[in-house]
């Protein structure tokens, strides 16, 4: 089959010399999204994609499976609680409050705010009494959150808009009169290319102008820092944390707000300059609980006195497990023997254990609904004997489970509201060996019954930032497997499935391990008869887009088709765009000679070679993406279209008015249908 000619993309003779290495960049002109030439090329690519896409085979089934809806873990404030739910016909989840008598009211409905579906609810935080609600909205996928305050009883907006609040935590003081939050400096006060950075922690008093907000932290620190802030339930203790970009380490301080004023807190060091992460929970018993990977790659819990919070005072309560990663915990203290409910993942599968709150002694396991994922363990802030947590697995839409420590029972508290007939699938976790002999795990989801020869297969991976790939309900996966395919998810190094060391074994100078783990996953699927190279498609987004970009340039023979979504691909210049400067702690910086060597060694854009038969490739990018600029995919698409010796197509799906994160259901359905249709066409499903 002869493919259509590709739109013309001018090649420039641009070569930068970095640390003695000539670095060609023939498509740098595509970095300017506003130039007429770029716009013309994008229009031609969109027309080519439209002519090539064919009928969306899976669209109706994906939409049907997404009619399950969803439900979120409750946040309790006294007898009132808050939660999110999406019903079968809703484009976005709605945020609700439920009163003590069971009366339910919608507080924030993104579609009521904006019927176009382009507005998303990014974050919510009720005050300590449940009377006021801080919430953050953004439009068109840009994730530039604007902060508002609502009176919960009336639903009336009492504060806002407060802009420049992207990724801002909100920490209320008791009484709802003031809160700490994080806001970027105005663009007029920073260099033009640094407006995404320069965050500070402020104290805001409700009803006053933000001009009167007091900056309490961040001045003089690194421009790429992210800050966390929290206040204990009794209002006595303030905690502030600082991460340099996405680094797997943080500095931590606490202040006693009874001994220093809220607008000038006397912050004392918990940890500073330490290559480890720690999170703090102020217990109702007066103790400070520290969840940390310091001296414990898989995590542990220590306790100390918040008045003397330094490392030398920490006492280990829950030690590191040799196999399971400690993710979360809740304190249940309205009992004769107070306990700690601890959430773990063992090789990416969740489990819960119960421990004595004073000694840490393990008292037993807590029943969970199956082999799946648990998230967001919640307790009553004032104490109690109950905990709520989210649960999902490959065939179970999100549910909320309630654990009662008095009876020891786990029961279904809330299910996703839509009744959906979910296909029967078989899920198996396999272990395979990577290039350096490391054992890696992979979840393989296939049609039920005995395998009848190799099948068209999608291999998915991420492998970065300590993010774990755990089981979860996915309409796309179920639609693919129901149609006769296999879907495999590899738990690559760079993720957090085996703890922080597993992450570090796949970051910075170890990044090639991630790609080796992925190639080895593909080879295992082929060697065990699950699929063949001609039936194997790969898929990844964001850092996973970098993964599949490296995979297709390093082993084009191994894959028949690639879907590369919102990717990083020019690893020499990635720091110059979007939030790239916050990721050099994960990847390295091209400014450093050694780190440039790592990046240059795998940068997909720079490893496209003329005359190679590349797999069929679909780039999916989002014009409003402020995290990963779509220029990465644009440049790589042009390079591949120029270089490939294959008749298999290289296509670009460039979508407007959406970004890197949340989107409406109908937009998600469209994207999933296009990607599965493309993979099916080129793997033979």
Can you put this structure into words, describing what you see?
- The chain is an alpha+beta fold and 685 residues long.
- The strands form nine sheets. The protein has an eight-stranded mixed beta sheet, sandwiched between helices. Strands 3, 4, 5, 6 and 7 form a five-stranded antiparallel beta sheet that branches. Strands 8-9-10-11 form a four-stranded antiparallel beta sheet.
- Helix 2 packs across helix 4 and helix 6 (511-527) crosses helix 7.
- The relative contact order is 0.11.
- The mean pLDDT is 97.
List keywords for this structure.
five-stranded antiparallel sheet, eight-stranded mixed sheet, 17% helix, 39 strands, 685 residues, alpha+beta
| Number of distinct beta strands | 39
Shape: globular
Biggest β-sheet: strands ordered side by side in the sheet:
32-33-35-34-36-37-38-39
Helix coverage percent of residues?
A: 10-25%
The N- and C-terminal alpha carbons lie at a distance of 18 Å
On the 0 to 100 scale, the average pLDDT is 97
Runs with pLDDT <50, length 5+? none
- The DSSP helix count reads 11
Q: What structural class should be given to the helix and strand makeup?
A: alpha+beta
Fraction in beta strands: 25-35%
The whole-angstrom Rg is 25 Å
Largest sheet: 8 strands, mixed
Keywords: Hydrolase, Protease, Serine protease
Family: Belongs to the peptidase S9A family.
Protein name: prolyl oligopeptidase
Catalytic activity: Hydrolysis of Pro-|-Xaa >> Ala-|-Xaa in oligopeptides
């Amino acid at each position: 089959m002869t493919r259509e000619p590709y739109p013309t993309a001018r090649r420039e003779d641009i070569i930068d010399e970095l640390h003695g290495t000539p670095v060609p960049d023939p498509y740098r002109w595509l970095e300017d999204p506003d130039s007429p030439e770029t716009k013309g090329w994008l229009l031609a690519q969109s027309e080519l994609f439209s002519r090539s896409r064919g009928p969306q085979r899976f669209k109706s089934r994906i939409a049907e499976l997404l009619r399950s809806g969803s439900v979120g873990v409750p946040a309790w404030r006294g007898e009132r609680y808050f939660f999110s739910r999406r019903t079968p016909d809703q484009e976005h989840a709605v945020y609700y409050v439920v009163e003590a008598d069971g009366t339910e009211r919608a507080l924030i409905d993104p579609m009521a705010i904006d019927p176009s579906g382009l507005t998303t609810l990014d974050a919510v935080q009720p005050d300590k009494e449940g009377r006021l609600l801080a919430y953050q909205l953004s439009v068109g996928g840009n994730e530039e959150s604007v902060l508002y305050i609502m009176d919960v009883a009336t639903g009336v907006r009492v504060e806002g808009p407060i802009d420049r609040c992207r990724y801002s935590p909100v920490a209320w003081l008791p009484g709802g009169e003031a809160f700490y939050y994080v806001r970027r400096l105005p663009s007029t006060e920073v260099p033009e290319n640094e407006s995404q950075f320069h965050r500070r922690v402020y104290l805001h008093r409700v009803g006053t102008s933000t001009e009167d907000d007091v900056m309490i932290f961040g001045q003089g620190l690194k421009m790429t820092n992210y800050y966390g802030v929290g206040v204990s339930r009794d209002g006595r203790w303030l905690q502030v944390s600082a991460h340099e970009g996405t680094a797997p380490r943080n500095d931590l301080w606490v202040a006693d707000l009874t001994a220093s004023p809220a607008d000038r807190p006397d912050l004392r060091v918990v940890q500073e300059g330490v290559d480890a992460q720690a999170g703090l929970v102020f217990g109702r018993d007066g103790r400070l609980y520290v969840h940390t990977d310091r001296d414990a790659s898989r995590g542990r819990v220590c306790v100390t006195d918040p008045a003397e919070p330094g490392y030398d005072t920490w006492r280990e309560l829950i030690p590191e497990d040799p196999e399971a990663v400690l993710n979360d915990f809740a304190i249940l203290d309205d009992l004769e023997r107070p306990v700690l409910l601890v959430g773990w993942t063992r090789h990416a599968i969740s489990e819960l254990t119960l421990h004595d709150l004073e000694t840490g002694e393990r008292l037993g396991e807590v029943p969970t609904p199956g082999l799946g994922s648990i998230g967001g363990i919640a307790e009553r802030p004032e104490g109690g004997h109950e905990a709520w947590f989210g649960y999902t697995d490959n065939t179970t839409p999100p549910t909320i489970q309630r654990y009662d420590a008095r009876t020891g029972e786990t029961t279904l508290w809330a299910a996703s509201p839509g009744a959906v007939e979910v296909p029967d699938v078989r899920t198996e976790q396999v272990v395979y060996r990577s290039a350096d002999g490391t054992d890696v795990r992979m979840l393989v989801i296939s049609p039920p019954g005995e395998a009848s020869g190799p099948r068209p297969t999608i291999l998915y991976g991420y492998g970065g930032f300590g993010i774990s790939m755990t089981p979860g309900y996915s309409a796309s996966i179920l639609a693919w497997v129901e149609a006769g395919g296999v879907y495999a998810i590899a738990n690559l190094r760079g993720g957090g499935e085996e703890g922080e060391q597993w992450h570090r074994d796949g970051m910075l100078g170890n990044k090639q391990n991630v790609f080796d783990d992925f190639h080895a996953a593909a080879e295992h699927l082929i060697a065990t008869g699950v699929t063949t190279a001609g039936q194997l498609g790969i898929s990844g987004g964001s850092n996973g887009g970098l993964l599949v970009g490296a995979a297709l340039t390093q082993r084009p023979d191994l894959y028949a088709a690639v879907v590369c979504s919102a990717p990083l691909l020019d690893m020499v210049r990635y720091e110059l765009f979007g939030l790239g400067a916050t990721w050099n702690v994960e990847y390295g910086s091209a400014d450093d000679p050694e780190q440039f060597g790592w990046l240059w060694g795998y940068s997909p854009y720079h490893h496209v070679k003329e005359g190679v038969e590349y797999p069929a490739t679909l780039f999916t990018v989002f014009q409003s993406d402020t995290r990963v600029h779509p220029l990465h995919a644009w440049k790589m698409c042009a390079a591949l279209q120029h270089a490939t010796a294959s008749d298999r197509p290289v296509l670009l799906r460039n979508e407007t008015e959406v970004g890197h994160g949340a989107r409406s259901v109908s937009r998600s359905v469209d994207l999933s249908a296009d990607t599965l249709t493309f993979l099916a066409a080129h793997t033979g499903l």
